[in-house]
Specification:
197 residues; alpha+beta; Glutaredoxin; Glutathione S-transferase Yfyf (Class Pi), Chain A, domain 2; 2 domains; 7% strand; globular; binds glutathione; Glutathione S-transferase N-terminal domain-containing protein; Glutathione-S-Trfase_C_sf; Glutathione_S-Trfase_N; GST_Omega/HSP26
């Protein structure tokens, strides 16, 4: 299998963590999606990473589909749980993934500064969603888990990305228990080996 991905991308990182956690043989090819490379556009018409090419040449995207595919085919669904087994856990994963979306969109707003089209409205909206969502994860006790599952992996991707791209967003005071869990878990090799920055 071949994965088009990039080190700073939190979506790519989720897949790269799963690859390491499950000790899979995957060739990782560093890809800048904005280059619009032929291979990426052939695999994913959206022009986004991550994109996974299977051994028969077929391509899978997006990060959640790839992650669920690897979980079902190589981990007996231990990372996401059996389909329909725990809707609250599935919803928590969606919350974390939505917060990654907010953090990436906030970054895009910052990059629009150069074009002079940064929107204070959208900047504030993404920041508020991030703070509200992280507070909700704290309320749910998201860090209070006995094992590393897909939500734990996605949560590490989210929090490291926020620290990397939005260091002024002071989420720790809203989520002290999550912060404690994060400080401990982020040192595990699968996370340390894939940390952005
Ligand atoms: N929903 C997608 C989002 C992927 C995504 O937005 N990736 C970014 C890199 S972090 C990208 O490829 N951006 C280029 C673009 O959107 O044109 C997923 O979960 O994989």
């Amino acid at each position: 299998m071949k994965l088009l991905c990039s080190a700073p991308s939190p979506y790519s990182r989720l897949v790269r963590i799963i690859v390491r956690y499950l000790e899979l043989e995957v060739e990782e090819v560093s890809t800048n999606p904005f280059d619009n490379g032929d291979e990426l556009l052939r695999g994913n018409p959206l022009g986004q990473i991550p994109c996974l090419f299977l051994s028969d040449g077929a391509a899978l995207y997006d990060s959640e589909v790839i992650s669920r595919y690897l979980d079902v085919t190589h981990a007996k669904s231990q990372l996401f749980g059996a389909p329909g087994s725990d809707w609250h856990l599935q919803c928590q994963f969606s919350l974390i993934k939505g917060l990654i979306d907010s953090a990436v969109k906030l970054r895009q707003e910052q990059m629009r500064e150069d074009e002079g089209v940064r929107s204070p409205f959208w900047t504030a909206r993404y920041e508020q969603a991030l703070l509200r969502g992280i507070r909700e994860l704290e309320r749910q006790g998201a860090g209070n888990r006995s094992r590393i599952d897909a939500s734990a992996m996605a949560l590490v991707c989210l929090l490291d990305y926020v620290d990397f791209r939005h260091p002024s967003l002071d989420w720790r005071k809203l989520a002290p228990a999550t912060a404690l869990w994060f400080e401990e878990v982020r040192e595990l090799p699968v996370f340390a080996q894939t940390r952005p920055g």
